[in-house]
Amino acid sequence: MVVGMGGEKSWDPTPFPLPDSAVNASAGFGDTLLLGISPYIRTALGIGSVDQESLAYSYGEYAGIGASFLTGGITGWKAAGTKAPGLEFSHWVSDRFVNGVLNPKNGRQSYRKDYLDNAFGQWLAKKGNKWNGNYVTPKQHYRHDSWRSPTGWRDFGSRYHPVLQQYSRIPLVYKGAAGGGIYGVVGDSLND
């Protein structure tokens, strides 16, 4: 509340102006997320000037890129799914590389990788670890994993090309983070 010289009372919605650095950082953040459209909006609305050359504006842009990466990763995490009827977990780095597969001919473990014989390997091979896989349908699992042959696999069509198999198996958390990061970098580049 502000009291004027004549005793009249009025409300001042901005009693404490924000420091220029906070305004510039917020603008850099917003400009990145809005793909460079917000400077035009500010101009149309006649909202103060922003120093796009300031260090604070650059920090805001970096924060916008980081927020895009994080948002994309979270979206990918959610898209990777959860255990549900009709879905099964598909590893990117297969658990057979950690635990091996018993060869019935010689009784030895095959496919096991010594560099995964540790706590990290056990964590990686854990079923449901969305850092190393996604929940998919049996048909999808069959098409991108040469070792998976569920009931009815003959009706599922051919398997993917090996390159497409790998792309399909990449955990969605990484695809989401990459997509979010690309969005943030594009938004940053459109500010220039």
In words, what does this structure look like?
The protein has about 190 residues and is mainly α. It folds into two domains: about 20-80 and about 180-190, no CATH class; about 80-170, no CATH class. The chain is about 45% helix and about 10% strand. The protein is built from eight helices and six strands, in the order E-E-H-H-H-E-H-E-E-H-E-H-H-H. It has helices spanning about 20-35, 40-45, 55-80, 95-100, 120-125, 140-145, 160-170, 170-190; strands spanning about 1-5, 10, 90, 100, 110, 135. The chain has a two-stranded antiparallel sheet with strand order 1-2. It has a two-stranded antiparallel ribbon with strand order 3-6. Strand 4 and strand 5 (about 110) form a beta hairpin. Helix 1 packs across helix 3, helix 1 packs across helix 8 (about 170-190) and helix 3 (about 55-80) runs antiparallel to helix 8. The radius of gyration is 26 Å and the shape is elongated. The two termini are about 40 Å apart. About 25% of the residues are buried.
Features:
mainly alpha, two-stranded antiparallel ribbon, 8 helices, about 10% strand, elongated
